[in-house]
Amino acid sequence: MSIEENATQEETVQAAVATPPPAEAPKNAAANVVGSFLGLKQSNPKVFFGAIGGVAALLLFMMMGGDDAAKPTISGPAMKDLVIGQRYILKSANAYDASATVRLVSTPGAIAAYDDTEEADRNGACQHMPQGTPVSVLEFAEAYGKQKTYSKVRVEDGDCKGTELWALSIDVQ
């Protein structure tokens, strides 16, 4: 290869590098679209403002459309408005099994740290009461900024009759 041929190849390579980077192409296309749209405002204002009105009407239609009544409602266990001195029954709000028990503890808030991995916790007297056990509410304790989160109850029937322990208020129904 001669020196002249090398110089010619170098010029063609440099010419290929001089093309604009691909990131500028979308900017140029967007500028062309905006420019032609604004040019439409000058040349044919009816079409320009009609297009703006159509887009606005479409957005308004989409926002106003739909029916809230078709959405399913979410329901779950609800806390009763408990009254001190009234009789209620224990019912686990989170269990569908009729043989499930309700946990009673000696201090409010101990349920949050509840762990029955020890044998004594599972078989302790009056700690797991069957659902349907009648109780009377004696007092309330708040937790996490919510009133009446815990209820102090007195068991009214069975082997633990007269025992006073704390339960989650949602489990007293």
Note poorly predicted spans: none
Multimerization status: single chain
Helix % is 25-40%
Q: Calculate Rg over CA atoms.
A: 37 Å
What is the number of domains? 2
Query: Count the strands?
Result: 6
Distance between the termini: 98 Å
Structural class: alpha+beta
Number of helices: 4
Query: What is the averaged pLDDT score?
Result: 79
Task: Give your account of this protein's structure.
By secondary structure, the chain is an alpha+beta fold. The protein folds into two domains: 3-70, no CATH class; 87-171, no CATH class. Helices cover 35% and strands 20% of the residues. The protein contains four helices and six strands; from the N terminus they run αααββαββββ. Strands 1-4-5-6 form a four-stranded antiparallel sheet, with no helix packed on it. Helix 2 (24-43) crosses helix 3. It is elongated and about 105 Å long.
Tags for this entry?
173 residues, 35% helix, elongated, alpha+beta, two-stranded antiparallel ribbon, 2 domains
